Amino acid sequence: MEIEIILASDFSVRGRKIVQAMINAAPQDVIVHVSDCWQRKAPILMTYGLGHMVRRHWTEEHLRCGGRIIGWDLGYWNRDVSLNFSMRVTIDSDHPWRLIGPMPAHRWDSAQIALREDFDPRGHIVLCGSGWKQRRWKQAGRDWEDEKASELKRRFPGRRIVYRPKRPEKAPDGLEVMDEGDIEDVLRGAALVVCGHSNVAVDACIAGVPVECEDGAAYALYRHGSAPSREQRLEFLRSLAWWQWRCSEASEAWEFLKAQLQ
């Protein structure tokens, strides 16, 4: 296997750490070319932050040329841990939902994260805002959020609808901003989470709150319906655990990724 790995100076600290860990742990049967920009040196390209304006162009062009992409970003859980943090990975797309299937349970089970049942059918609705990168690529500003807000007000007249932005900003008309506190506080007692592709959908899966989403890893679960069973949620999370890794697990991550690329 031959792979080009981008290690750029503008990576976040965690992005640089996971990519450097993968470089250091590269198996003997993997030929690695390291550069700070795309140089078309190998059929597989690995980088951090697929939404970056410049790297987005490189990865899309690499795919158009018939290449494969491995992309890293902040993890689905344990992303805020200071040292042994997790980073999520995907292949050939922004999110791996098409690749998620039944997997052994031990990676999720070892995280010791308890499923909760925070759902309240009479509770509030949570609308999650997109990040600025996603808005820029779609060239639609905040149109999606404003349209969803109008739709939710029609579907749930008189219901409390809160807006959870990715960055501090004013809520769509008629919605309450809830941008403070942990996401667990926002989800507690909620009736529904609505998002484009936010990792909040994974948080809601853990919390037992129904989800409507259009993309993201959680679409693998919620494209079949907004309220899966507890058993379906657990099966999804056990599979999703294979799509995030710690720097200390770089060798195991290589073995997993090599198998997926075959």
Brief characterization of the structure:
The protein contains ten helices and eleven strands. The mean pLDDT is 94. The radius of gyration is 19 Å and the shape is globular.
Could you characterize the architecture of this molecule?
The protein is α/β, with parallel strands linked by helices. The chain folds into two domains: 2-106 and 242-261; 124-240, Rossmann fold (3-Layer(aba) Sandwich). It is 34% helix and 19% strand. It contains ten helices and eleven strands. The protein has helices spanning 13-24, 53-64, 106-111, 132-138, 143-155, 183-187, 200-207, 219-222, 230-240, 250-261, and strands at 2-6, 31-35, 44-48, 68-74, 86-91, 124-128, 161-164, 176-177, 190-194, 211-212, 244-246. The strands form two sheets. Strands 2-1-3-4-5-11 form a six-stranded mixed sheet. A five-stranded parallel sheet has the order 8-7-6-9-10, sandwiched between helices. Helix 1 (13-24) crosses helix 10 (250-261). The longest helix is centred in the middle third of the chain and has 13 residues, at 143-155. The model has no long low-confidence stretch (mean pLDDT 94).
Number of domains: 2
Helix proportion range: 25-40%
The main β sheet shows up as:
6 strands, mixed
Number of helices: 10
How are the strands ordered across the major sheet? Answer: 2-1-3-4-5-11
Query: End-to-end span in angstroms?
Result: 10 Å
Oligomeric state of the chains in view: single chain
- Taken from the alpha-carbon principal axes, the silhouette is globular
Strand content: 15-25%
Summarize model confidence as the mean pLDDT.
94
Task: Give the low-pLDDT segments.
Answer: none
The ordered string of helix (H) and strand (E) elements is EHEEHEEHEHHEEHEHEHHEH
- Structural class, from secondary structure content? alpha/beta
| Strands, count | 11
Q: What is the gyration radius calculated from CA atoms?
A: 19 Å
